[in-house]
Write a structure and sequence with these properties.
about 90 residues; transmembrane helix; about 80% helix; transmembrane; single chain; membrane; Conjugal transfer protein TrbC
């Protein structure tokens, strides 16, 4: 029994361990595109907040009260999702 366990332990030690993960060649271009997409998305979100603020100001001056807080919540949620996209993917990818 001990010989079997010793042989099994020796077999497990002989399994080659992969080195640290390395990016494939050309992946830096993909990362550049993803970074650009993130910057564009953040820029659009910032323009959305500015536009929402302008619409809120005009609506306040007119005396109408729409559901701007809900719209601002959706924009803020989108910003959080954009900012955390890399961490979310990293969490699920391991």
């Amino acid at each position: 029994m001990i010989e079997t366990l010793t042989a099994a332990a020796g077999f497990v030690q002989d399994i080659p361990q992969p080195g640290p993960p390395t990016a494939p060649p050309g992946s830096d271009k993909v990362l550049d595109i993803l970074a650009w997409a993130k910057w564009v998305a953040l820029g659009i979100a910032i323009l959305g907040i500015i536009t929402l603020g302008a619409v809120m100001t005009i609506a306040h001056n007119r005396g109408s009260g729409d559901d701007f807080l809900q719209k601002l919540g959706w924009v803020a949620g989108g910003l959080v999702l954009i900012g955390a996209a890399g961490a979310i993917v990293g969490f699920f990818a391991g």
